[in-house]
Amino acid sequence: MVAETETRQGLDVASSVPLLQARDVTFGYNRQELLHEVSLAIQTGEMVGLLGPNGSGKTTLLRLLSGIFQPWKGQILLEGRELRQWGRRDVAQRIAVVPQELHMPFAFTVKHMVEMGRTPFIRSFFGSQGSRDREAVQEAMAIAGVADLAERIFNELSGGERQRVLVAMALAQEPSVLLLDEPTAHLDIKYQIETLELVRRLNREHKVTVLAALHDLNLAARYFPRLILFQRGIVADSNPAEVLDPALLRRVYGVDVQVGIMRGSAHLSVLPPVLEEKRGLPERPVVHVIAGGGSGEVMMRALADAHIPFVAGALNIGDSDHTLALHLATEVITEQPYAPISSAVLDQVRASLRSVALLILCPVPIGAGNLALLREALFAAQRGLSVIMLEEQVSEGQEESLEAILPRDYTEGKGTRLLMLLRQAGATVVTSVSEALECAKKQLADETFLSLQ
Length: 453
Ligand SMILES: Nc1ncnc2c1ncn2[C@@H]1O[C@H](COP(=O)(O)OP(=O)(O)OP(=O)(O)O)[C@@H](O)[C@H]1O
Fold this sequence. Notes:
15 helices; Rossmann fold; single chain; ATP-binding; 2 domains; ABC_transporter-like_CS; disordered C terminus; translocase; ABC_transporter-like_ATP-bd; alpha/beta; 453 residues; 6-stranded parallel β-sheet; binds adenosine-5'-triphosphate
């Protein structure tokens, strides 16, 4: 996390109230939660890159931070004051958004477009411009390098030129914060570099605070001293060396990469692995862990300590086991916060159970939402998959009384019945993590022995 007072690449980052802040923000679409209690603070002078796979919620977060969307819960604060308490015009004079693309229905010239960026300062849209407005427009066009294009029609420009005009429009607002949504999408490498050089200049020379959603991890490493890795919530928030960690990227993007400093370069590079080196990469998961509600914490730590690669899931975002699994598991099967396990996610669980050698079922609370996971576990056991059931210690004489509904079963006995069927299908019941680990090592050793025969 960002320290209160810090100097990043020569920029003094103010220590007091964050310039822009999300506090416990929850938001979604069509009544389905996408972001759950997201908190983040951007200090004046920072240049922050927002990374994450397609659909991870980057654009949504930028729209929340700029006030286009209102959070369902939580707050967005600008200079410590809730965004909705500021007037629209006041917000627009401070926060500018550079969208990925903008399709204009009319043949606007570049100069018209940049003047439109100035509207928060003009009394009405058709109001007349003052000399300060004209100056701001000229300055914005000069800084963004589009002064020569002033009389050209926006829709007739190249992708790179249009991108620079969008930046000029935002600059005409003279904002303190610039939110950019994939400013380098659709640009060739020359324009990508030019655009990010421009953004860096704005940050360094014009003191504009920057938050930019990006897909290119290499450009992110090169231009952004602070990176936030986002997947419907913050997975990592630190400098490029910490965030561009191959294991973390693998969990979030589901691909193997190499990260290192290329000869003669001063920045980290993220590359696909060389084929020969693939052998040295972490093994594919051999164990699947079903957990939730903290029931898998010790088990997952034990597997990670023993270097046994495992898949965890399905786990809901916001569940403490999900947060831990993102750090420890080789793969994490993720479901939306509080949502029941969907059929698409169940398919992922089924595929994983087909590829691993062992399932460990932790003493997870059983509700209507995760009952389907137990059914998958039972099908897998009936197909011959080895299953270890980690149960809470029961007092003597109670071992045989599983017919009584388990206290952690909230499904009127359906869950308990599935657990009994799992036992009947040959699952091994253990009552401690160390026992489970020993049992797992033995099962995996037997499995390897069988596969070698
Ligand atoms: N207006 C909307 N209505 C319903 N669902 C939406 C809407 N906008 C986005 N979504 C969904 O919310 C999720 C997050 O979308 P968002 O655009 O925020 O992600 P992103 O990280 O910016 O993705 P990308 O990198 O592909 O641009 C996606 O599953 C998307 O389909």
